[in-house]
Design a protein that fits this description.
The protein is an alpha+beta fold. Among the domains are: 75 residues, Trypsin-like serine proteases (Thrombin, subunit H), CATH 2.40.10; 209 residues, Cyclophilin (Beta Barrel), CATH 2.40.100.10. The protein is 19% helix and 35% strand. A hairpin with a 5-residue loop joins strand 23 and strand 24.
């Protein structure tokens, strides 16, 4: 059984009679003693690993794995519970189920969440927060079968950027129901959480590094939030609060840009504010710059992207329905939401996190006439006047959602729009420009 190790739990017996002189240990006896010690260590680790089932009321949504990182705090993949209103934890060493009270921290980009679990206390798994060397043994624990702990072994192949996210790649085969299981090294510390994904037409196994889990633990809330809040963009109270927000400040490596979001597009407003509060936008690249059009950011795969990575494809895991308000069009300074082309996206749903800021250019009447014919769209007199005197991106009107505008810092947008880009890599700037953070102005 290649790549599998079966560890048997050997009970210890106390001998009532001892010889006056203890015999010298033979090599095979020493080996047996070491095996027993190893068994004891893994048995202790097993107690901290569990299955998780997520539910929408009584309907099961996902099954995955996870482990305790504090006595009553359990880490798993965010996507396992993202659409749930309830989750149950079943430890590997028990048939009892424990309710997840809520979450104390999550990282949407790295697909991690820490849940608080009621009625249980377990020893936390030790995190390996350094970088595991290539060829290090990678070990996955499966649920015990009687007195047997199956260990699935492999090795670390690499630690590198995969679609803009730093991940370990391992040789272990990870199935869907095993997503979230800890992957250990020989020290019995975990290097992170396992999952698999098809990359370059090949199903590969990866590990989300433990350093991200440690960061979540450090910044966790003391009071848990309900799982329902993950899937609900907003309730009426939150929407009312968002409608009163004066604006937001986008801090970039080249200067600050003040913006405001339109109350006429509440789903986009509330979504942008929600992601801002999560810190989702912090450290993301301005990954697309097109002269005469504008700048674009908000792609999840840009936070850790290497220089030669192709980026801009990854969002938060959902899209938003188009909401085109006639009085808001693509004049200079407007903020809109990119989307996939009509051939792949007949309903014109927008990316869930990306946004663009229009720097634009001036257009003549003849150019606007041509756009009307090409797009089967009629510009108003106001639009024509604006595009001829102020400028913008009229080719997007009527088909892309506009949800905000710049209130200060257009000179920063203009400077960014002039940087050198790689035209062969979807207009990514040759020198990285990051959104340091976005803050809410009360």
């Amino acid at each position: 059984m290649k790549n599998w190790i079966l560890i048997f739990l050997i009970p210890a017996f106390v001998v009532s009679c001892k010889p006056k002189t203890a015999p010298e240990k033979q090599p095979e006896q020493t080996a047996k003693a070491q095996a027993a010690d190893d068994t004891s260590d893994w048995a202790e680790v097993v107690q901290s690993v569990a299955r998780i089932d997520s539910y929408d009321n009584g309907r099961i949504l996902e099954t995955g794995q996870g482990f305790f990182v504090a006595e009553n705090l359990f880490v798993t993949k965010y996507s396992v519970v993202a659409n749930a209103n309830r989750a149950e934890i079943t430890p590997y060493d028990s048939d009892l189920k424990y309710e997840a009270k809520g979450y104390v921290a999550f990282d949407r980009i790295n697909d991690l969440i820490i849940l608080k679990v009621e009625g249980i206390s377990r020893k936390p798994v030790s995190l390996f927060t350094e970088i595991a060397p290539v060829s290090a043994k990678s070990i996955c624990i499966l649920r015990p079968e009687g007195n047997v702990i199956p260990l699935k072994t492999g090795k670390v192949l690499s630690f590198s950027n995969v679609r803009g996210i730093k991940l370990y790649r391992i040789t272990n085969s990870i199935t869907k129901n095993s997503f979230g299981m800890p992957v250990f090294v020989s020290t019995k510390q975990t290097i992170g959480i396992a999952f698999s994904e098809t990359v370059d037409y090949e199903l590969r196994s990866f590990v989300i590094p433990a350093t991200y889990i440690a960061s979540l633990l450090k910044n966790k809330n003391e009071t848990p939030n309900s799982l329902v809040s993950l899937r609900e963009n907003n309730n009426q109270d939150v929407a009312a609060e968002n409608s009163r927000i004066k604006g937001l400040l986008i801090e970039t490596g080249m200067g600050n840009i003040g913006i405001r979001l339109f109350n006429e597009t509440p789903a986009y407003r509330d979504n942008f504010i929600k992601l801002t509060k999560e810190g989702y936008y912090d450290s993301l690249l301005i990954h697309r710059v097109i002269a005469g059009f504008g700048i674009q950011s908000g792609a999840a795969d840009t936070r850790y992207a290497a220089k030669d990575d192709v980026v801009g494809w990854k969002g938060p895991g959902y899209t938003l329905p188009a909401h085109i308000v006639g009085k808001y069009f693509h004049k200079r300074g407007m903020i809109g939401s990119p989307r996939k082309p009509d051939t792949e996206n007949s309903r014109r749903r927008s990316d869930g996190s990306q946004y663009y800021i229009v720097s634009g250019r001036l257009y003549s009447d003849s150019e606007l006439d041509d756009l009307e014919k090409a797009n089967n769209y009629k510009f108003s007199a106001e639009q024509r006047q604006v595009y001829k005197t102020i400028g913008g991106a009229p080719h997007l009107d009527g088909t892309y959602t506009v949800f905000g505008e710049v209130t200060s810092g257009m000179e920063v947008v203009d400077e960014i729009s002039k940087v050198d880009v790689n035209a062969d890599s979807d207009f990514r700037p040759l020198k990285d420009i990051r959104v340091k953070r976005i803050t809410i102005l009360k």
